[in-house]
Amino acid sequence: MTTAAELYRLWSQDPYFDEETRSELLALSGDPAAIEERFYQMLAFGTGGLRGVLGAGTNRMNRYMVRLASQALADSIRPLGEAAMARGVVIAHDSRRCSREFALEAALTLAANGVVTYLWDSLRPTPMLSFAVRELGTTAGVVITASHNPPEYNGYKVYWEDGGQVPPDRAGVIQAAMRAIGDIRTIRPMAEAEARARGLLRPVPPAVDEAYIRRLLELVTCALAQRAGLRILYTPLHGSGYRPVVTALERAGFSVTVVAEQAEPDPDYPTVAKPNPEEPEVYEIALRYATERAGLEPFDLILATDPDADRLGVLARDRSGGYRLLTGNQVGALLTDQILRARAAACTLPANGCVIKTIATSNMVAPLCREYGVDLLETHTGFKFIGDKIKEFEQTGEHQFLFGFEESYGYLGATFVRDKDAVMAALLVADAAAHHKAEGRTLVDALEALWRRCGYFQEGLHNVTLPGKDGQARIAALMAGLRADPPSAFAGVPVAFRDDYAAGTGVELATGRTYPLALARADVLHYRFADGGFVMVRPSGTEPKLKIYVSVVGPDEAGAVALRDRVMADALAQMGLA
Questions:
Q1: CA 184 centroid distance within chain
Q2: CA 193 → CA 68, 70, 71, 144, 184, distances in Å?
Q3: Span 348-389, pLDDT tens digits
Q4: Angle between helices 468-484 and 32-39 (to 10 degrees)
């Protein structure tokens, strides 16, 4: 096995690697710990692909790791035959540092292997990549993005022919192919001019963009007059959402104003610390603009998308004239209610309809699904698992997909995209807001009505960041500690069921009854309360973090918030993290 020191010498000295890479590494020659951290491992396929900090080394995102992943992707397509290679791969990228460079590097590496590639001439959101895979009929798709991570990150995400992220078995094949490439220097991308001349590098036809917008517009249910009465302020947070989000909303008849300071793509995201719509501070400019409109019609909604426009954040105006940041769980509940209500009113609610959420997501929608007579299904955390379910239902006919969502601001309301889609979600949220406004309610009013129907649910998430090799060991130790001494209660709330997805079994604490878990094995601990609340702990698949989720049900909103905070504090204390 090649050591970190040996890899360092190769990358820092061999002329295969560009001068910038070699210089960056040579500057570390007196720091063995930094060298070890750069080369002790190869970036692994996590949630659908690679993600890491930009820089030189096998444990960083750079053009050589993109080449390696692309060569492995080509090696996994080649056994499928010439037809699969001719169907090819479609590639998109967002506004991050090196995204265009990495997209072209991937395309030319695939072309060197005889795989046809389609590449957009400018940035596009991740959901449009998912759509394009199906629209063009390609074998696979790649998007260069690190989603909502800080500016120093980038990533390489792979999709398969169904438009969904590569499932674990396919990701394993690509990972194995990466490791099988003994010498990275054997990878030689084709020259761009040659790839284009030979038809191996092609532009994505403009008709793909138009088809995507057209399908989105089919999802709007409220009347045109209701749409025209809704006012939206939107910020793309310097990412790829600007044009598709504005195009979709305006063509649907909504009034949209864009936050000018955050409109244009910028890989440094200069107006925010982190381009994540889950962070309240990203709305500061938008809120200032919204509150300085003296004498003008106020905005009903403030919407924000992350750099690759797969996550949507929502601020809704309340009756006092302020704006309330809705959580991903709350937006998911509002959209579930809107979609099921509209389908029931139109008599198009199927007998085998289903809503899908992840196990980290609130159970607030369970009463809604019962009320409308549709099934509620759960998957592991990660939208790729929701995409897998859609594919499964197409094959079995067991269910018809109606809506899927996860707590981390990801939503999907149709199957022509197979990943969370903030462009689609912006349209669905606007549709719901317009419906409620026409009946004299704000989205905040609608949420409060849902709480009265379903229970006062409140959720929280705490991230423990532990980077590097030592951080991985610490995360593993924390998970092992919970398994060795499992909690039986949090802040006085007894655990009813304890599910260990690594073991594949659960236990009912009151009786000691054990049962097999339906979902695949994963490093996840799930402590479920009798009323639908829970505490869940898992390592992140894309960042050096341990994630602690809390969901509770209280007697009212204030009581639920207080209970959530107590449960989270106790969970952290029991893990030695308080």
A1: 30
A2: 22, 19, 20, 22, 23
A3: 999 999 999 999 999 999 999 999 999 999 999 989 999 999
A4: 70
Q: Which of 147, 362, 408, 551 is catalytic?
A: 147
Query: Are β-strands 493-494 and 497-500 bridged in parallel, bridged antiparallel, or unpaired?
Result: unpaired
Tokens representing 421 are: 């889609």
Angle between helices 443-454 and 422-438 (to 10 degrees): 90
Query: What is the secondary structure of 116-160 as a DSSP string?
Result: -EEE-SS---HHHHHHHHHHHT-SEEEEE--TTS-TTEEEEEEEE
Cα-based angle 550, 555, 561 (whole degrees, multiple of 5): 40
- What does the pLDDT look like over 27-39, one tens digit per residue? 999 999 999 999 9
Going by DSSP bridges, is the β-strand pair 456-465/545-554 parallel, antiparallel, or unpaired?
antiparallel
pLDDT of residue 432: 98
Low-confidence ranges of the chain (pLDDT < 50): none
Q: For residue 543, what pLDDT is reported?
A: 77
Q: What is the pLDDT of residues 481-533, one digit of tens each?
A: 999 999 999 999 999 999 999 999 999 999 999 999 999 999 999 999 999 99
The Cα–Cα gap between 155 and 142 comes to 10
Gyration radius from the chain CA atoms: 24
Count of beta carbons in the 10 Å neighbourhood of residue 349: 18
Going by C-beta distance under 8 Å and a sequence separation of 6 or more, which residues neighbour residue 126?
92, 94, 143, 145, 147, 157, 308, 309, 310, 419
Buried b (16+ CB within 10 A) or exposed e, 459-488: bbbbebebeeeeeeebbeebbeebeeeebe
3-state secondary structure of 310: coil
pLDDT for the residue 168: 80
**DSSP code string of 159-185:** EETTSSBPPHHHHHHHHHHHHH---GG
Q: Could you confirm whether 147 is annotated as catalytic?
A: yes
**Residue at 121: amino acid letter:** D
Tokens of 541: 């698949």
Read off the amino acid at residue 63.
R
Q: How far apart are CA 513 and CA 519, in angstroms?
A: 18
Contact 335, 403 (CB under 8 A): yes
At 451, list the tokens. Answer: 């709480």
Nearest to 305 by CA among 424, 143, 395, 134: 424
Tell me the CB-side half-sphere exposure of residue 258, using CA atoms within 13 A: 19
Q: CB within 8 A of 191, min separation 6: which ones?
A: 108
The strand pairing partners of 314, in sequence order, are: 303, 326
Tokens of 556: 């009212």
